[in-house]
Structure formats: structure tokens, C-alpha cells
Write a structure and sequence with these properties.
The protein has 13 helices and 17 strands. By secondary structure, it is of the alpha+beta class. The chain has 3 domains: 89 residues, no CATH class; 130 residues, FAD/NAD(P)-binding domain, CATH 3.50.50; 95 residues, D-Amino Acid Oxidase, Chain A, domain 2 (2-Layer Sandwich), CATH 3.30.9. It binds flavin-adenine dinucleotide (FAD).
Length: 370
């Protein structure tokens, strides 16, 4: 099957940020041949540790070897640039057209044509709109609504791990919950760097961009009174970036004739469960298998892809939106009850993993399609 990837960017580059790759995504990346790359630059977190903003422990659930044993694939933290480089190295760039921005779509008979910003046209049997949260394909065929602004901003930075060595930060997925705010940090780049994300109420700025910047003083002000380790991570950051967080409402359908949506275009979600890219990766595997199984009837193949994927992706989208309230609870009594309940529940999980994690990480995209 010949594939053309139309990418608007003029080069394949990635933002300077980390990404959590849970076993449901790593399983697929391994099948694509990235196992050795991931082992080289990925960091295996020993556990997921949730603390209150002052450092009080709330919850610890297993990851590391326990996640591998339970789910059959590792949980990794990685730098996005390393992941992109490994994908390019392993899969090559054949069929990738850079500087190709799609602006229009037309379905005629058995083909779909895409018009590009430079005035040219590309024609194919099917079109997959994997064009992110601001998807043109979604807008033209499925939904004219703009993304929903969550009212929160994610600050983020990547720092040399050596700059906070005094804190002896363990190799965990470290999550901190404070009133109306949260922080997540973890090692990337084989352990040489730490990626942190701090989510706060937005100051009215709803611009969504991986390259918008801010000042360290502004971030420190947002986290005044937090544990010294969090303040040290922020202080060690040369240039913090900010990103206004948006998601989408679930769609009832991702397929129109020979066109289908995939990834954020279909189901962009808030980052609390670190699943946006993981869901895109699951989509891609299932879609490829559906098309390979039914090459003579691509419309049916796309409908099969949708039937196999939509319920799960829409659940993850809602699960992620609901998490904002859990992470950012502000009433002290409600926070106390939340923490108590989570600790009690913890002892009842047969394998140590909360049911949400079991459902997220246990998904096998190949089993789902066979
Ligand atoms: C703060 C933050 C932290 C996150 N952390 C995690 C995490 O730890 N783990 C995880 O799994 N997910 C995480 N995510 C989510 C993840 O980044 C996204 O879900 C993922 O990038 C979506 O992939 P995608 O390919 O669908 O869309 P995108 O990554 O947005 O890619 C879309 C591509 O389409 C191109 N494009 C767009 N429009 C056009 C056009 N008209 N013509 C041609 N090309 C076009 C774009 O240039 C881009 O390359 C996080 C998100 C945020 C905001």
C-alpha cells in the first residue's frame, strides 16, 4: 500500500519536551522496531508517586518491572526529540512530503483529493486526517466547533538533572497535587535531563502553542508555598514555555466515506493521564491493520477502524477531562477525603494498579483488531 504523508512543517523537528510512553503505546512502538532505541534513551520509572504540594505522600503505585510483568511492555519516559529521531531512523522518510499544508478536501467517486496551500493537489484512495487538535479535515467534514479551552495553562521546562542533584530526585513519575494546580516531573534523555509540567489557572491567555514562552519569576509566583524541590526545578529552567490547554468534545463518528480522523484530530484530550500520543499510536496500528485486511473495500475498512477505536478513545478523553477536578481539588476537607479514599482503594487493587491504569495500559492494539 503506497502512503503519502502531507506534513505542513518544513522539517521534521520536535519540541523540547518530554513524553510519557505507557505500555499500550510502547507495545506498538516495539512492533514497529523501536525496542532497542527505547531501551537506549527511555527512562524506566520505578513507580508513580503522588504527593501533596507540600510533599506529603498521597499514593504510590508500581511501574518499572511491575508494569512490564503485568502489561508485557515497559513504561518509559522520553524526550520527544529522541522518539522522533528513532521513528525516522527505524521507519525512514519515504512518502513524507514536507511543507505540504492541506487546505481543502474533495471526495469524488472512489478517490479523495486534497488541495495544498501551494495550489497543488494530491489524490488517493483514502485520506486520514491526523492533523492535530486544529484539524482542517475535522473542520471540513466533521465539526466546525473550535477546541474547548480548559481555563488552564501548562508551564513546562526541561533542565539538566545535575542542576537539582542536591534533591536526589528518584526515578519515579512524580505527580504533585495542590489547590487549583498540579506538577508532574520525570527524567528523560537517558536520565540526563528532567522534564517538568506545571498546570495552573490561566491568566486569560488562551493561546495554544508549543513555542510560547514566559518568565521563571512568573512560574515561581504560581507555585509560591510549594515544596522546595518544585521551586528548584522551576529555578533551574533557562526558558519556561507555556501552553493553554484545550480539548475537544467527543465525536459520534470519525469516518465520512473515504476519509477518517486519527489522533488529536479525532479525540484531543487533556494531558492528566499522559494518553494523547498513546491513543494516536493505538489508532494508527488498528487503522493500518484494518486497511491491510480489507484493501478492496477501504470504506468498510475505515468503518471497522472506527468501530474498534471510538468507544475507547472517547472514554480516555472523558477520563482525562475528569482528572482535572481530581488533581486540582482546592477545599481542604475534600482533599483530605480524596487522599484517604485513594489510600484505602490502593490496598484493594490485586496487582497494585488502579482500574483506570489497568484499562489504559492493558490494551493490546493487535488483539483488538484480530
Ligand atoms: C503539556 C502536554 C503534555 C503531554 N504529555 C503527553 C504524554 O506524556 N504522553 C502522551 O501520550 N501524550 C501527551 N500529550 C498529548 C500529545 O502531545 C498529543 O496527543 C499528540 O501529539 C497528538 O498527536 P497527533 O499526531 O494526533 O497530533 P499532533 O502531534 O498535533 O500532530 C499533527 C501534525 O499534523 C501537522 N498538520 C496540522 N495541520 C496540518 C495541515 N493542514 N496540513 C498538513 N499538516 C498539518 C502538524 O504540523 C503536526 O505535525 C501531551 C500534551 C500536552 C499539551
Amino acid at each position: 500500500m503506497a502512503v503519502t504523508v502531507l506534513e505542513q512543517a518544513s522539517a521534521l523537528t520536535s519540541v523540547g519536551a518530554g513524553i510519557q510512553l505507557s505500555p499500550n503505546a510502547v507495545r506498538v512502538l516495539n512492533w514497529l522496531g523501536l525496542e532497542e532505541n527505547l531501551a537506549a534513551f527511555g527512562v524506566l520509572p520505578e513507580s508513580l508517586v503522588v504527593r501533596s504540594y507540600d510533599g506529603t505522600s498521597i499514593l504510590e503505585t508500581p511501574l518499572g518491572a511491575a508494569a512490564y510483568d503485568r502489561f508485557g511492555a515497559a513504561y518509559y519516559h522520553a524526550h520527544r526529540a529522541d522518539l522522533l529521531a528513532a521513528l525516522v531512523e527505524t521507519m525512514g522518510q519515504e512518502g513524507v512530503r514536507l511543507g505540504a499544508r492541506a487546505v481543502g478536501i474533495e471526495q469524488i467517486g472512489d478517490s479523495v483529493s486534497v488541495s495544498l496551500a501551494d495550489g497543488s493537489m494530491v489524490e488517493g484512495d483514502v485520506l486520514i486526517g491526523a492533523d492535530g487538535i486544529h484539524s482542517v479535515v475535522r473542520k471540513v467534514l466533521f465539526d466546525i466547533e473550535e477546541p474547548r479551552f480548559s481555563g488552564t495553562t501548562a508551564w513546562r521546562g526541561v533542565i539538566p538533572a545535575a542542576s537539582v542533584a542536591a534533591f536526589d530526585i528518584p526515578k519515579t513519575t512524580s505527580v504533585w497535587w495542590g489547590p487549583n494546580r498540579s506538577v508532574v516531573h520525570y527524567y528523560v534523555s537517558g536520565g540526563r535531563e528532567i522534564n517538568w509540567i506545571g498546570i495552573v489557572p490561566a491568566d486569560g491567555d488562551s493561546v495554544e502553542s508549543w513555542s510560547a514562552t514566559g518568565r521563571v519569576e512568573d512560574v515561581l509566583r504560581e507555585f509560591a508555598g510549594w515544596h522546595p524541590q518544585i521551586l528548584a526545578l522551576i529555578r533551574a529552567t533557562d526558558q519556561p514555555f507555556k501552553w493553554a490547554l484545550h480539548d475537544r468534545e467527543p465525536l459520534a463518528s470519525w469516518v465520512d466515506g473515504r476519509v477518517a480522523l486519527l489522533g488529536d484530530a479525532a479525540h484531543s484530550m487533556l494531558p492528566y493521564h499522559a494518553q494523547g500520543a498513546a491513543q494516536s499510536i493505538e489508532d494508527a496500528w488498528v487503522l493500518a491493520r484494518c486497511l491491510a485486511d480489507g484493501p478492496s473495500d477501504p470504506e468498510q475498512a475505515l468503518l471497522r477502524y472506527q468501530a474498534l477505536r471510538i468507544e475507547r478513545a472517547n472514554w480516555v478523553q472523558k477520563f482525562s477531562r475528569d482528572a482535572e477536578q481530581l488533581f486540582h481539588m482546592s477545599d481542604p476537607e475534600a482533599r483530605r477525603r480524596r487522599d484517604e479514599k485513594l489510600r484505602q482503594n490502593q490496598s484493594a487493587y490485586p496487582h497494585g494498579f488502579p482500574p483506570g491504569q489497568e484499562r489504559l495500559y492493558g490494551y493490546d492494539a493487535e488483539s483488538a483488531v484480530t
